[in-house]
DNA sequence: AAGGCTGGATAGTTGAACTATCCACTAGGA
DNA sequence: TCCTAGTGGATAGTTCAACTATCCAGCCTT
């Protein structure tokens, strides 16, 4: 398959495909001569993944590249690779290192994760993201209660356990595992977010018509 | 309070505050002379809300303005106002109007919402967002099953019903209701997203150590 | 042998969210 | 009273991300 066919099949314009090639999101095609390269179904598949992450997940190009680089480095084991993917999907807030309020919130987050018995790296960016969210809620005058957080955490775990990690083929090839993980995280994350807003609208209608 | 104090209290630089004033995100201060205006605690509060939506929620400035305009238009009733806020928080995908696959997915979405008994406007952008997500999942070779979607939908409803809409003071002033809704939607949405990723990491660790 | 693609390189565009500069003016202290 | 830092308002510039456009030499088909 040549680049123009890749373009028509995927709906992505040629200059954009070239851009993804430059950025290392898409592997080079197999060079057949100085001015010709051959692309396969793997390229088409990768291209669809890129567009899905960009359009539905709003994942930045740089993060996508990070994931792809982790997959292509054969030395990393599967768990580390999945970790890298997860960390790339996070939106790191600036650390606010020397802030009293921040430090206390961060300790609360660490305690919560420990209490839940979750096995999460102390370096996981999610800890910082959660800290930022809690600090922000407090500053807005609506601090989250421990009880609320526990409900959210357990709900998240039940979805992750029963419907997401269960889908991931850990015994298959490594690239398929990461790809599945990323798709699950991003797409079902989006789906859940939309469902939540729809549910809120429905509740609002019910309450305000009474 | 003058603009410089607003800046130091909120941590937002003066030129940025001026930008928010220009963009209509922040109401003008009370003019006390040709070159002086007075800002109150409401401005500080608003500024914190703006930063929360931008930094934690990644809500675009244009969407924030839409919400604010709806609140300030006294003619709209509360339900419409909350609707406007919700719709502003959505990320409208382009409609793909004349696409067979899209149309079928859209019908499935409409059927699902009807089956759930949810009261959602047929114009709600969430319907399009969900359609896009399902089409994308199918194109990636991992179509969502009805059973999975139902679980996500019911889980979302239970959080929305018990922990989000229950918090909203429908009987108070209208601006407080919208503000609370937006904060709940965005901040707890973020919190849930982070919990989900942390839960996935924890599950991954558990599975791969066995 | 000619016209259309191709890969590769380089430069330009768009949109969002700021950021910087300028200016006339004025409040508030020396 | 005068001076100066700060103010509001306007306008223009910056940065970053994600493209998009143009150019060019070379091949491949017809």
Describe the protein's architecture and organization.
By secondary structure, the first copy, chain A, is mainly α. Chain A has helices at 3-10, 14-22, 41-55, 61-72, 78-89, 100-116, 125-139, 146-164, 174-208, and strands at 30-33, 36-38. Chain A contains 9 helices and 2 strands; from the N terminus they run ααββααααααα. A two-stranded antiparallel ribbon of chain A has the order 1-2. In chain A, helix 4 (61-72) packs antiparallel against helix 5, helix 5 runs parallel beside helix 9 (174-208) and helix 6 (100-116) packs across helix 7. The longest helix of chain A has 35 residues, at 174-208. At the A-B interface, helix 3, helix 5, helix 7, helix 8 and helix 9 of A face helix 3, helix 5, helix 7, helix 8 and helix 9 of B. Chain B binds a DNA duplex (30 and 30 nucleotides) through residues 2-4, 13-16, 18-19, 21-23, 29, 31, 33-37, 54, 60-62.
Task: Give a quick summary of the entry.
The structure is a homodimer of 210-residue chains. The first copy, chain A, has helices spanning 3-10, 14-22, 41-55, 61-72, 78-89, 100-116, 125-139, 146-164, 174-208; strands at 30-33, 36-38.
């Amino acid at each position: 398959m040549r680049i123009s066919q890749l373009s028509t099949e995927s709906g992505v314009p040629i200059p954009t495909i070239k851009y993804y090639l430059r950025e290392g999101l898409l592997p080079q095609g197999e060079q057949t001569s100085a001015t010709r390269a051959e692309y396969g179904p793997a390229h088409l598949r990768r291209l669809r993944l890129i567009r899905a992450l960009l359009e539905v997940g709003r994942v930045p190009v740089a993060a996508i590249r990070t994931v792809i680089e982790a997959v292509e480095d054969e030395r990393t084991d599967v768990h580390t690779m999945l970790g890298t993917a997860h960390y790339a999907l996070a939106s790191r807030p600036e650390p606010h290192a020397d802030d009293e309020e921040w430090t206390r919130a961060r300790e609360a987050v660490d305690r919560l994760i420990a209490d839940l018995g979750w096995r999460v790296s102390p370096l996981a960016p999610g800890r910082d993201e959660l800290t930022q969210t809690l600090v922000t809620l407090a500053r807005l005058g609506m601090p989250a209660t421990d009880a609320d957080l526990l409900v959210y955490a357990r709900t998240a775990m039940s979805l992750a356990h029963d419907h997401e990690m269960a889908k991931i083929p850990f015994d298959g090839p490594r690239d398929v595992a990461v790809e599945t993980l990323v798709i699950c995280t991003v797409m079902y994350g989006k789906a859940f977010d939309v469902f939540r807003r729809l549910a809120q609208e429905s509740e609002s209608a019910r309450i305000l018509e009474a």
